[in-house]
Amino acid sequence: MEMNVNYKIGLFIPCYIDQFYPQVGIATLELLVKLGLNVDYPLKQTCCGQPLANSGCEADARSIYLNFVNNFREFDYVVSPSGSCVYHVREHYNILEQTEEVTRIRQNTYELCEFIVDILKVEDLKISFPHKVGIHHSCHGLRGLKLGASSELVTTRYSKVHRLLEKADKIELITLEREDECCGFGGTFSIFEPDISVKMGTERILDHERNGAEVITATDMSCLMHLEGIARRNKNKVKFNHIAEILNQSRL
Amino acid sequence: MYKDKIIQRIQKNKHSLRPLPENPPKMEDKIDLSAKFCENLKIVGADVFRIDDESLVSPFIDLHFPNAVDFSDPETWKEYSSTDPIDKFNKLNTVILRGQFGVAENGAVWLDDTFFSQRIVPFIAQHLVIKLSKKNLVGGMVEAYRKINLTKTGFGVFISGPSKTADIEQVLVFGAHGPLKHTVLLIN
Amino acid sequence: MMNHAAKAGKFLADLKRADWHDQTLWIMRKKRDKAVSCVPEWEELRDKASQIKEHVLSNLDAYLLQFEVEAVKNGAQVHWAFDSESFNQKVYSIINGYQAQKVVKSKSMLTEECGLNPYLEDKGIEVVDTDLGERIIQLRGEPPSHMVVPAIHLKKEEIGELFHSKLGTEKGLADAQKLTSAARQHLRKKFLSAEVAITGVNFSVAETGTVVVCTNEGNADMGVQIAPVQIHCMGIEKILPRVEDLGIFIQMLARNATGQPITTYTSHYQKPKPGGAMHIIIVDNGRSEHLGNSKYRDSLKCIRCGACLNTCPVYRRSGGHSYNYVISGPVGSILSPIYSINKYKDLPFASSLCGSCTNVCPVKINIHQQLYSWRQEIFEKRLIPTSKRYGFKFAGKILASSRYYNFFGKNIRWALKHLPRKVLYHRINIWGRCRELPPAPDKTFNQWYQENYKRN
Prior knowledge:
The structure holds 3 protein chains of 3 kinds.
Chain A: E1 8-11, H1 15-20, H2 22-34, E2 38-40, H3 50-53, H4 58-72, E3 77-80, H5 83-92, H6 100-107, E4 109-111, H7 112-119, E5 132-136, H8 139-144, H9 160-166, E6 172-173, H10 189-192, H11 194-210, E7 215-218, H12 221-234, E8 239-242, H13 243-247
Chain B: H1 2-13, H2 33-43, E1 47-51, H3 57-64, E2 69-70, H4 74-79, H5 86-90, E3 94-98, E4 101-103, E5 108-112, H6 121-124, E6 127-133, E7 137-138, H7 141-147, E8 155-159, E9 164-165, E10 173-174, E11 181-187
Parallel strand pairs in B: 1-11, 2-3, 3-6, 4-7, 6-11
Antiparallel strand pairs in B: 4-5, 5-8, 9-10
Chain C: H1 4-13, H2 15-37, H3 42-58, H4 60-73, E1 77-81, H5 84-97, E2 102-105, H6 109-114, H7 116-122, E3 126-129, H8 132-140, H9 156-167, H10 176-193, E4 196-199, E5 203-205, E6 210-215, H11 219-224, E7 229-235, E8 239-240, H12 243-258, E9 265-269, E10 277-283, H13 287-290, H14 307-311, H15 313-316, H16 329-339, H17 356-360, H18 367-380, H19 386-400, H20 402-418, H21 421-424, H22 445-452
Parallel strand pairs in C: 1-10, 2-3, 2-4, 4-7, 5-8, 7-10
Antiparallel strand pairs in C: 5-6, 6-9
Helix pairs in contact in C: 2-12, 3-12, 9-10, 16-18, 19-20
């Protein structure tokens, strides 16, 4: 690994992971430390501002954006276990004045898997995961950050998430009928269009289950929060783990 | 009156000029065009017969389409002029036309009114049979449009297979309004 | 008028039908994928098509004027209409000029947009929509639910009942082949007696004054080649510069729309037929104004292929009639607010912003980004209910401060942990109607980090 050990990595933990799924944050931190990185977690971070911006009030999210910038100005890279938050910073922090600092932060904020594959240039994390796993390709990561080639495109197929998982010992990655259909979370979409949101999520789970998935994983805990919420209500057997937990070999 | 208003609004609102990309002629892939053409004809629901020589076409037609009206024969135009009542054309069952060229990529054949004047003929019949020379095939649509001179025609059409619809529960049905059957005689 | 979410709820209440609708359109998406994968340079074609359209929009006035000159040279009569009212009036005056009363019309979303049919019918003109799907919905008295397959929401049994009632077919007939055959015979009579044929325009060519219409059924030609008068209705954005540009668009349209390599008929109307009259109406209806809006101008590139509808997980599960606009789905949700941001303020929110639509668009319209932009505009114009607006502003203040954020987070977790289920899952909790709420850990990651993490 060529990463300069003096690079400072800032860990951004999305608000809902911080509050409801701290184990995902812990797994992310442990994994990055295992990879030999100098990681710090700024304590005053809050949120990337996406829930407001996607609902139409990006103007009111400005101060949230500025809090992000304030917390991460000291770092060479910002890494986060969330495709949608990272996409939001890279794509929609354009409403801030584009100072050198803002530009640098936007360019160097990475989702966990793309950071490992593209920056650390690591693909084999030497893990073992003896389960049938379905990958849910969260949309913002897939189409926004190009973590993979989405099925609409006529191009060489690739997936950074798949690449990291396929090397795990004893893992079986299942194939879905609808490879990359949206789960229906969509932030406040899940509240404002609840019927479609739940229908979409229910069908994602069924697709995974029909194809033998024991565990569903994704780069975005928001998708998994929504899917798990449906699965627990409907008493589906499938389990949910964020990609960080699998890659870190956390005690699951 | 409206024209000026619309043009002025456009001039006020349009953005700065963007470049128009060029379409350089593609290097034709060294594929067997007639094989691809026939494959695509089958996909679009057409029948295709390969005929070894032009001299074998008439006997073939006499055998398989004995009651066909041959609109590739200029004599037929005299019998079916464009001033004849439409009911006469409506009684047409099988018609024969000559296609000018075919497109391998999609099984389409180009016909335009430099070769026939009764524009309704390819559409109103129940079965359309097209005679096409194998040497008149191009690979794709970009090449196809280079072959056409629209200014010399009044009407031209690419026809690919029989008339079809899937408007009822996406079930494919041939013969929505145009011919139910489409046959290409590909002649060496 | 019920908003999209409410209509979607009703649509989904009939689960079996909703699943069938979703699956049918998903199959169309898969057919599209197969057809476009046969074109290895597909992504380059998208770039080209997008650039051609952007060029056209930046030089639109010149191309329209060139088109008119060429079309007139060809013997066509060219008219201009500023809005839907002037368009409808123009069509009527042309028809009336020939003292005609029987009109056949092939598919044209523009005429739907302008409400042409009711206008003409009011004046005693018989207008028969000849595309099978369009005829079905015309007989039912409802708008199209999809721009390419207008009757996709109907089952063959319903069509059978309709034809029994309106066309006299046998009761209980539900065979697609037989129903199509009945429609063929019924519409053939209309074609044979039609005095005027109206079509839309898929593409027009400035260089030559050509009008191009693509159909699978042949209904445009059955109309145009029989009726003495043909009228082609064209939105100003449909123009292309050169004949050679058609090579790209014709290669792309049917593949993306229905998964076919090309439509059965790609008709090029150049000159009137001998003894016939050819009219072309160039229609603005807000497009020249739309051109001036840099954020949303790109949606004028749309070639109405419908692929964004087929790929949209929301459209597939809510149906076209949930959108309340002539064009539904993702592209409808970015076009409709241009006409009335207040009437269509719910549509940009009828999306999870998954971005699939942008990826299937043959002309690379940034649909999901426009949806996002419209949301900002709708919020700025205060078209969101006051309670929601203040709710979000409040959330903005909380999330900008780690102190408030942690305070609220703690209380939310306390509530999740301690409130009785009956309270937590009160029906006011929309999330909780069909989903369990997330777990409530004792400590946040932030707290764990402060207590546990020791640097190496």
